[in-house]
Amino acid sequence: MIDSRGGLDTLGLDGMVKSSVLQFESWWTHLYNDTSAFDSYKPAYNPTYLSLSASSSANELSRLSRLPPGFRQLARAGKIATDILDVLSNIVSYGESTKAIDITYNGSGNTTPDGSSNSMRDGPRQSPRIRTHVHIPSPAVLRAKKRHHDFWQACSCLLVSGPHFEKYLVFALLLFASTAFAPGDNGRRYLACSHTAFRTPRACLTRELPLYELSDDLSWVSPPHGVGSAPTDQNQRPVKETMQECLFWMWLVLIDSWRATDGDESREAQKLQDMLGRKFGPYAEWESVGAVLGRFFCTEDMICSLGNCWGGSGPK
């Protein structure tokens, strides 16, 4: 039908129809492990990776320094493609330009801001007071926005079919950003109906993470093209350990996303948490959970939610 109208590029509305069709079809292929009907519009998967040297620009080094240590190590080791680094940097920038604002309702029904804070540790909330997050746009903080017709144009690993570490990471980042930056106290539950993050990416992670083993993914064994020489046995192990921690973090984000939208009694979250305990053993105890959260992205809401369910001693 689309070909009979001249192809995707002729669908009109300044490319919006093309974007909608591509995005719906891409998520469909991921969700049902189907082949794409628009492969001719998509390039071959050919990622680029960071190659640090003495001549690396100050901008590259500064961008790396702002990332959480776990992501920073994987980027330096050539395990995260540069387009994913752009996403990580944007999440950092967006978080820096987001403020938590207290608003108190007065008797007239109007609201008055009581100030702002980057900390969520303000004790129990009083009923007349609400706390909400607002995004403060700042050209100095956020990089110039790029326009993409589909998600794979932003992260080319989404072109890959089958199990893939970076693809799962991008899915987890979609979930994290959606929960971390949802507006207001009920924003995360409102986003439960979002096709973008809480349908296909979460469904794919829920289905595939329990079956995924890092040892089955050979992408870490040899460096990608352009990264440099192969790592020695001495420095290969810590990189693999960090990849394992990152995989563990993806599980935590997935579990938190289910509780964010379905509540603390989410059956899917509890089932995944039980699987996590069996899959990672002692590694899934709360002390390790806290350490992993400190090496990757997390929010105080995420820490509190996971901590309540872990009970501080391990999965229930």
Protein traits:
316 residues; mainly alpha; three-stranded antiparallel sheet; 3 strands
Task: Characterise the protein shown here.
The structure is a single chain. 46% of the residues lie in helices and 7% in strands. The chain contains 12 helices and 3 strands, in the order H-H-H-H-E-E-E-H-H-H-H-H-H-H-H. Strands 2-1-3 form a 3-stranded antiparallel β-sheet. The protein has 316 residues and is mostly helical. The chain has a domain at 60-104 and 143-216 and 237-311. The chain has helices spanning 16-32, 58-65, 69-76, 82-96, 151-154, 165-180, 187-190, 200-208, 233-262, 267-280, 286-295, 300-310, and strands at 98-105, 111-117, 129-135. A hairpin with a 5-residue loop joins strand 1 (98-105) and strand 2. The longest helix is centred in the C-terminal third of the chain and has 30 residues, at 233-262. 28% of the residues are buried. Residues 101-142 and 220-236 have low confidence and may be disordered.
Individual helix count: 12
DSSP strand (E) fraction? 5-15%
Strand order of the largest sheet: 2-1-3
The helix/strand series, from N terminus to C terminus, equals HHHHEEEHHHHHHHH
Q: What structural class do you assign from the helix and strand content?
A: mainly alpha
Rounded to an integer, what's the Rg over CA atoms? 21 Å
Number of strands: 3
Instruction: Identify the overall geometry.
Output: globular
Helix fraction, binned, reads 40-55%
Low-confidence stretches: 101-142, 220-236
- Cα-to-Cα separation, first versus last residue: 52 Å
Q: What do the pLDDT scores average to?
A: 71
Mind describing the biggest β-sheet? 3 strands, antiparallel
